[in-house]
Amino acid sequence: MTLTLDYLGDGRLAQWTLTSDGVAREVHDDYRPTLFVGDAPDDLYGRRGGPEPTPPSRDGLSDVLNELRSFLNGQQAVAGLDVESHRQTFRTDARPLLRVDAASIEAVRTVAKRVRQFDQPDTFTCYNVDFTRQLRFCLETDTPAAPDRSIRDLRTLRLKFPSHESGIESLPQLTVDGERVGSSPHEVLDGVQTAIDERDPDVLVVSTADLIPLLFEAADAYGVELEFGRRSGYTKLAGESTYTSYRNVGHSPARYAVPGRVIINESNSFFYHESGLEGCLDLVGRSGLPLQELGWASIGRVLTAMQIREARSRDVLVPWRAWRPELFKSASTLDAADRGGTTFAPDVGLHEDVYELDFASLYPNIIRTRNISPETVRCGCCDTDDVPGLGYSICDHDGYLPEVLAPLIDARSEIKTEIPDADGEERERLEAASSAIKWILVSCFGYQGFSNAKFGRIECHEAINAFARKILLDAKAALEDAGWRVVHGIVDSIWVTPAEGREQRPLEEVAEEVSAEVGIDLEYECAFDWVAFCPMRNSDSGALTRYFGKRRGEEYPEAGLGDAIKTRGIEGRQRSTSAWVEDVQSEALRVFDETRSPEAVCDVLRRRLRALREGEVDPTGLIVDNRVSKDVDEYSMETLTVAALKRARIKGAGLAPGQTVRYVVVDADARGASRVRLEYEDLGRYDTGWYEDAAVRAIESVLAAVGWREGEIRQYLSGTSDETLARFMD
């Protein structure tokens, strides 16, 4: 069992574990991380029918591997060399490989780079190179990654500090578990140390990782002995960086570690944000990724850790910089494969008596029920036509990817059945675990198409989509045959309403038949009294992901109207929308439900705009936040976000690409940094016209489904109307 691990250098490592009254520390003096080197696989997918492997020589290694062995022998980065047999792919047998024990964790990459430089780039393949530090130790020593909470629960301490502040003089703004601990930097240092000494936390939750070096800098300046960890000092594990993922720019802040305590940085912890500490701990047990690393890990990294564990259980090594060329496809197959899931254009407008049905974890269950895995799709040993529309074969041998996902699918299904009967802390724990697992399942499909995925493969991605398209089309046909009209459908969800003039078979009965045919549950999600599907902004065509509706009251007897109204894609669901605009839209939705009257909704807008013009709106509710996509000097347009970035730089709080800037618009027509005020500045005024436009757009999202666009809304607000000859002839 592991709380956290400290790499001490020179091959030494300290392992911290929980005890009934604190922690225990065990130092491993002779731990040596290991990597493997083999001849490049004859067939990268491990398909049967490839050429014979290179004939072995001494110790079962090929001549070229023995030359490499001689080259590495005696190097400072190498602590030992040996020969071990392991599988290089899921479809090949074990074969002798060169095992290299590195002198230190840092030496692993040094050795791997020297291997790649020794001969031609495709001569060797290195394995087990780029594991994260703590995951590597747990894997190589078969050490459980999760702390033993049967001994005691984890103790946490939360430190919050404004992200825009950086100097020692700003330390009095720090809070510990929500309370200020001093009015001067020296008092803050004493207060932090006192809180740590009294509570002896196992987990330090910090709002920004920059707080750690700042505290130690202040301690040096004031001559104070600060023990943030259970030993003195701290370690910088990684510097800050900017990255791009699926065309979105992200920012990864610097990472730090302190001895004997886990640090979770709220600004860089997806899973802590989505599922809290309980959700993180649930994933630690499932992934084998220790809490310190899971705290900053992406969804893909956690999924990779799970895949690595499954590969290890099958004695398959993990390739470094895996190269998986796409297999040959005809032009027609490429065209058929290069499509996503099925969507049915929504029937724009207001619909009464609508029912939503969803396939349970559709993509993970397709992987599981169709045995989709990198080594099973187009395996080379089966001549079958399994994937609809593409003709790919799928091997009969059990794939590893379904084995990774099956426990997650089953666990989440079981958790969801337990949640309704649970309460208090148990309910929170179950909901956190369900949320954490959900994100892994949501991402497993896309990760198959990710070029850097350790075990990804584009043919798997294509096959999953092909099955999903057929499943939704078959479900649509079955529902229409049963007397239902499909008003919208997207990937794994479908909305239906009774077809006029036809008798309907019970939805539950139809859903059961579809589920049995598909092998994946088509679940009844909810009924709506009404649903409004929105048109696109500049078109009358339906927007696929913009709708709102009121879920049927008897299904939510204890829910208020705010809980019963489900929204997707409109302003209230967008992170950049200010709280005030979101509140205006929420009130408009309530009035729309009560009256179905565009005029009544516009009356809400009129009243809220009057308060805005009269200065009655709290400026803190007008804060807009936008993610920065590049450096401030790289923007060519003078947008409000650019103005905010310039202002932040002037204030000494510049932001890197991937970070978020938060501001209030004070004069949209001005120039430069004066157009906005940052959230932490004096917010005494705001640009009324700019926020009026934002509110009108939010109301347009509500009323566009019933034919009222911005022009009609503004005409009503101004008290004028367009009269036509036809009106006077009625």
Automatic annotation (TrEMBL):
Biological process (GO) annotations held by this record are:
DNA-templated DNA replication
Q: What is the protein name given in its UniProt record?
A: DNA-directed DNA polymerase
Q: Known Pfam families for this protein?
A: DNA_pol_B
Enzyme Commission number(s) of this protein: 2.7.7.7
Organism classification? Archaea, Methanobacteriati, Methanobacteriota, Stenosarchaea group, Halobacteria
Which species does this protein come from? Answer: Halorubrum salipaludis
EC class: transferase
Q: Which UniProt keywords apply?
A: DNA-binding, DNA-directed DNA polymerase, Nucleotidyltransferase, Transferase
* Annotated SUPFAM superfamilies: DNA/RNA polymerases
